[in-house]
Amino acid sequence: MNLDFTQIVPYIPFMLEGIWVTLGFVSVSIIFGFILGTLIALIKISRIKFMVGLADAYTSVFRGTPLILQLMIIYFAIPQLTGYNIPPFFAAVLAFGLNSSAYISEIIRAGIQAVEKGQTEAAQALGVPYRPMMKDLILPQALKNILPALMNEFITLTKESAIVSTISYLDLMRRAQVVGSDIYRNFEPLLFVGLIYYLLVMGLTMLGKLLERRLRVSD
């Protein structure tokens, strides 16, 4: 069968809208995941064994099960138990945010532990309270070191975002499926959307490398 990309031309604006839909929910998810992941990381380095155990269990569950399973549980299973339907956008943000927070917590924990212990000891010797010490001294240095890793997490979420098409959320992948069912040809719209995903990931990768170079120069 010959390829015929002329059939998808009228649908190109519809598919391109999926870029902002995809980046929109991925950006919200990474912000949610970053905030929650930071809290979990702080719990992991605390001395409260019970809380540390809960944080480790949380990380283990969300890193040890497939993201698509987590999405399905949130979108299909939880409404079965509660009787309330969850909108696709909220389900996608919740699943991706919770999953991402597990990975981000490990990234931030490693970044905090990479900061020289001497700085923490000096701050404690000067009587600086724990919260200001973390907020003004430790976390800024840790974040500077882990920004490339956080960028990689953003790229990973962008690639994995295609699975939200399984809950009929109109992201890039779902729009390609809609076009394919409309014109009875799937290869052309999927190839077109695949190219968009590739360009998005390459653009974010280049941005990440640029950020990493600037961090090296500032050091």
From TrEMBL:
Regions that span the bilayer: 20-43, 84-104, 190-211
Record localization: Cell membrane
SUPFAM superfamilies found in the cross-reference section: MetI-like
Membrane topology: Multi-pass membrane protein
Signal sequence, renumbered to the chain: none
One term under GO cellular component: ATP-binding cassette (ABC) transporter complex
PROSITE patterns: ABC_TM1
Keyword Transmembrane: yes
Chief location bin: membrane
GO molecular function, one term: transmembrane transporter activity
Annotated InterPro entries: AA_ABC_transptr_permease_3TM, ArtM/GltK/GlnP/TcyL/YhdX-like, MetI-like, MetI-like_sf
Domain ABC transmembrane type-1, chain residue ranges per copy: 19-208
UniProt key word Protease: no
GO biological process, one term: amino acid transport
Keywords: Amino-acid transport, Cell membrane, Membrane, Transmembrane, Transmembrane helix, Transport
Family indicated by similarity: Belongs to the binding-protein-dependent transport system permease family. HisMQ subfamily.
Name by which UniProt lists this protein: Arginine ABC transporter permease
